[in-house]
Design a protein that fits this description.
BirA Bifunctional Protein, domain 2, single chain, Rossmann fold, binds adenosine-5'-triphosphate
Amino acid sequence: MPEVSMDAVVALCKRRGFVFQSSEIYGGLASTWDYGPLGAELKRNVKNAWWKSVVQQRDDMEGLDAAILMHPAVWKASGHLDGFTDALVDCKGCKKRFRADHLPGQGAQRSCPECKAVIDLEKTPPRPFNLMLKTHLGAVEDESAATYMRPETAQGIFVNFLNVINSRHRKLPFGIAQIGKSFRNEITPGNFTFRTREFEQMEIEYFVRPEAADEAYHRWIAERRQWYLDLGMRPEKVRLRPHAADELAHYAQACTDIEYAFPFGWSELEGIANRRDFDLRQHAEHSGKDLTYFDQADGGQRFIPYVIEPSGGVDRAVLAFLADAYREEEVKGETRVVLGLHKELSPCKVAVLPLLKKRPELVEMAKKITSSFKKHFVVKYDDTAAIGKLYRRQDEIGTMYCVTVDVQSLDDGQVTVRYRDTMLQDRVAADRLFDYFQTKGLIGN
Ligand code: ATP
């Protein structure tokens, strides 16, 4: 299959209403994107599929929806406040990171204090002090009112660890999952929706006994990889990349990225880390609260659980699913663009089309069929163009089936059902459509 270009995906997103540039009528805001009618639907489907698989279909997970704004002390405890507090420069030689104002030398050519390699500040510009977006709560804009837009959703989970254990009577191992917006003042946003300053995360913190952490870490890597494949992503486009020891954050025991072969190269979709007891320990210290877990089974032992964190991006998953599903085919000398999305992700499952919109009986029958499926799945009536054009549009947005009502339908009560991927058509009695779509997996899942 030919490689898909990023330009083709971006053009489709705009043309068909998946993604628009934010504030476009004012010239746009760089690297900020709005999900259009179909993008909103697709993104929702991705989040629902995740929530279903990691919360609703499991016995060992709870869901959470924490606030974006948190007590500023959270970011002190988590390390975010101090973690990026200066302009930072990466040395390409030893891979260490330095404060720009600590580099010896003048002008753009500096030398690394560690390995003495040349650091070219024009090629590797310093990254400003903090990736967190600061804001002020209340009317007074002084430091005491300063707070931050969360740079990750994870901390909302850690600060609610006790609340969830106590309200849900949880025993280890168990996890907490949440989906929500995060904000980072990224220095180099880009690649469409891949890296932006406002984005959405799907994060899990899975709490385990320290000795069970390694097994849970490997299990989550396998399960999270499988989730992408189960939703139709091509296996050859997905790979695991374990982090090298010198890449790991100081508190992490291990980390593996799930990467996708985007048109711009292999890039991270999700990271799965063994964070040991770092986060809960930090919050226990800073809050003064006892965040130990009491294990009655084991002679009343108290300890801080280890945590495995599978942390993925909603926007990156959406982009990967789009790029993965996009294909162009030659059909009778013409190019057919198809979005071969998995049925769970398709923004529209079925389109109902009257062959002739000037025949009121056809329109009436098509509209009746449309309404009869509204409570089962997303179904749209469309008569805004000739049938050939309608099929092409539906293929481009990934609609699974097109139901066409023609003149003969009025006589024999049958309609034509066309499947997106093969373009093969079935003649089906209108009153058997429910069973038909049930066997196709659109109903009752
Ligand atoms: P990267 O190395 O690409 O900056 P990261 O390792 O800093 O990512 P994490 O902090 O582990 O990312 O965040 C978890 C997930 O959140 C990432 O795997 C990614 O899917 C998503 N994510 C992080 N930053 C962004 C961003 N700026 N835009 C879109 N998604 C993001």
